[in-house]
Amino acid sequence: MTTANLYVPELVPSSNVTSTDTEPFNSDSDHGDIGKDNTEQVATESASFRKLQKKLRRQVSWAIRDFNMIEEGDVVMVCVSGGKDSYTLLDILLLLKRIAPISFDIVAVNLDQKQPGYPEDILPNYLNEQGIAHYILEKDTYSIVKSVVPEGKTYCSACSRLRRGSLYGFAKQIGATKIALGHHRDDILATFFLNLFHGGALKAMPPKLLSDDKQNILIRPLAYVEEKDIIEYARMKEFPIIPCNLCGSQTNLQRAIINDMLREWDDAHPQRLASIFKAMQNVAPSQLADRELFDFERLNLERDDDERLFEGDNIQAGQTESLADIGLPVAPKTQTYNPRFANSKLSANDSTTSDNSSVAQKIPTINPVI
Question: Residue 360: which pLDDT band, with cuts at 50, 70 and 90?
Fold first, then answer.
């Protein structure tokens, strides 16, 4: 049985920030300041908090712009689980909504999966206090997961599929045009390596995705955001975090192992993860081995008369007439260099006498004046 209730608390007064302060989704922007919010509580009004919040808003703004995630008139359904990622996503999107050059709506949706001991009041209380319109969708996916997954196996895959199916259908019911998920850059990288190590595929989580049934568009506005920044932001904002006891109670999850590997890399080589993520945006199909992605079978030579003349051991083979026509010597002289840099002792027959006692080497030198 699935039930859902819409809660529309009294909206808090909007801040003084206007869309003229910034244009976060404008492709012509120079990645500058994207505005300041004067409504934050005194407890979080510190230089470090403002700097971090500005960084997150900038990165989310870039991701939205780069992948055209949000358009005029969109209804964005933000999936809020009660974890640090979804809290941060909702908070940043609400800030950007007030200063964006386009108009769009945001509605928060929480899926109560009926896990034993789940604190049902924490998330609704937070959303009500913040004045955020939201739905609480109730569906007992916990019992289904427990019944279909053998004892000792991980629940993540089955739980994710059931949760995704419920949210997809609900988005269509309420007329949401985009579904926003809280996956960040490190989640995308972890999925990439999981597929690489265990799935035999080069794929991850795209920042924007059309569902298989083509009924929903998923967006991941936190795609450029590092997890460590989200952790710090959630700490500063004091979000009421709800742990996932269903998944978190299991040990030796492959994703957890991959996450540990990524954290070790980030500590030892701070730019490595950024480089890997950049590589995911700079794919060269012809340099891989996917026959569906690149047509290796039909590769053909396309030679013409503009060939490079000086390649290989026999640099003049078949090119004597061409060299003469363009004024190049048929038998180029050899260049000399300092014998101190020679790798081996040359015989007397290979040496020539010059002003600087240099040794002749078989290095073609062609510097014609044409």
Answer: low
Structure tokens at 88: 């941060």
pLDDT for 116 equals 80
Tokens representing residue 238 in the block:
């004091």
Q: Facing residues of 78 across strands?
A: 108, 180
Cα–Cα distance measured from residue 22 to residue 15, given in angstroms and rounded to the nearest whole number: 14
Kindly report the number of other CB atoms within 10 A of residue 134's CB atom: 24
pLDDT digits (tens, 9 = 90+) for 241-286: 988 765 545 545 788 899 999 999 999 999 999 999 999 999 999 9
What is the rounded end-to-end Cα distance, in angstroms, of the chain? 86
Task: Using DSSP, state whether 65 is helix, strand or coil.
Answer: helix
The DSSP code sequence of 130-166 is HT--EEEEE--HHHHHHHHSPTTS-SHHHHHHHHHHH
Q: What is the 8-class DSSP label of residue 264?
A: H
Res 30: pLDDT? 42
Determine the Cα angle at 70 with ends 54 and 122, to 5°: 65
Return d(Cα 149, Cα 152) in angstroms, integer.
8
Confidence of residue 146 (pLDDT cuts 50, 70, 90): confident
- Which of 28, 57, 26, 71 lies closest to 208, judged by CA? 71
| Rounded-to-5 percentages of helix, strand, coil across the chain | 40, 10, 50
Who's near 288: CB < 8 A, 6+ residues apart? 202, 294
* CA gap 188, 204 in Å, rounded: 6
Per residue in 170-207, pLDDT (tens digit) is 999 999 999 999 999 999 999 999 999 999 999 999 99
Both tokens of 103, joined, read 């108009």
- Please name which of 233, 238, 270, 241 lies closest in space to residue 48, comparing C-alpha atoms: 233
Interatomic CA distance for residues 276 and 94, integer angstroms: 30
Q: Based on C-alpha coordinates, what's the Rg of the chain?
A: 31
